[in-house]
């Protein structure tokens, strides 16, 4: 087994972490989101704090989302901003970008937003309805475009061809690292990806060979990922 990294090896490092789901409102009382709980982001933040880093944490909130639980002594090194939409996430993250050394994008950002959310409550009717949606903002792409030497670690959950899709994303998005993991097809169970305390997959690097990381707790995976990118 790998030796535990010494506490404090990330002292002086400042990292921006996006986490959790984003949501897109339909009307005053309804919204669309995805299965993200924020667990992977919380694990990356907790490990960063444990090793001495400063964390700027932009969290998409929804019912039951998991927040990092920094030990009291590290609270001062953690700044948390809660958002709902992809657009709010991009705005909050952009504000932190100039002060950080790197970006970890664990957030499951909604790729589409409802074009014209109703300000009131839409009433029930028996006719079929159609919801017009538009592409939402690319949070990571927006940060990349504004970057000034920061490194980037992205995450990708894939149902098919995990490593090939992951490699394509790493190249296309111009990232330094991308962790790609299989995620269950609709209706199936899985020990990787959304809503479970474990994860496993492959860390792809712009330079260097892929690092296979078998299924383990998200806390342990966060340790291994931080050690690999540190
Ligand atoms: N991401 C983001 N903003 C978006 C979409 C994705 O910041 N609007 C980030 C995620 O946080 C993740 C990375 O980009 O770190 C890859 O997300 P993913 O959804 O896998 O990429 P997409 O290009 O949206 O591909 P797909 O069509 O498979 O959803
Ligand atoms: Ca996406």
TrEMBL record:
Cofactor note: Binds 1 FMN per subunit.
Pathway assignment: Cofactor biosynthesis; coenzyme A biosynthesis; CoA from (R)-pantothenate: step 3/5; Cofactor biosynthesis; coenzyme A biosynthesis; CoA from (R)-pantothenate: step 2/5
Keywords: Decarboxylase, Flavoprotein, FMN, Ligase, Lyase, Magnesium, Metal-binding, Multifunctional enzyme
Cofactor dependence: FMN; Mg(2+)
Domain DNA/pantothenate metabolism flavoprotein C-terminal: start-end pairs: 10-229
Reactions that this protein is recorded to catalyse: (R)-4'-phosphopantothenate + L-cysteine + CTP = N-[(R)-4-phosphopantothenoyl]-L-cysteine + CMP + diphosphate + H(+); N-[(R)-4-phosphopantothenoyl]-L-cysteine + H(+) = (R)-4'-phosphopantetheine + CO2
Region (Phosphopantothenate--cysteine ligase): 15-230
Ligand binding (CTP): 111, 121, 155, 169, 173
Top-level taxon in the UniProt lineage: Bacteria
Protein role: Catalyzes two steps in the biosynthesis of coenzyme A. In the first step cysteine is conjugated to 4'-phosphopantothenate to form 4-phosphopantothenoylcysteine, in the latter compound is decarboxylated to form 4'-phosphopantotheine. Catalyzes two sequential steps in the biosynthesis of coenzyme A. In the first step cysteine is conjugated to 4'-phosphopantothenate to form 4-phosphopantothenoylcysteine. In the second step the latter compound is decarboxylated to form 4'-phosphopantotheine.
Protein name per UniProt: Coenzyme A biosynthesis bifunctional protein CoaBC
Name of the gene: coaBC
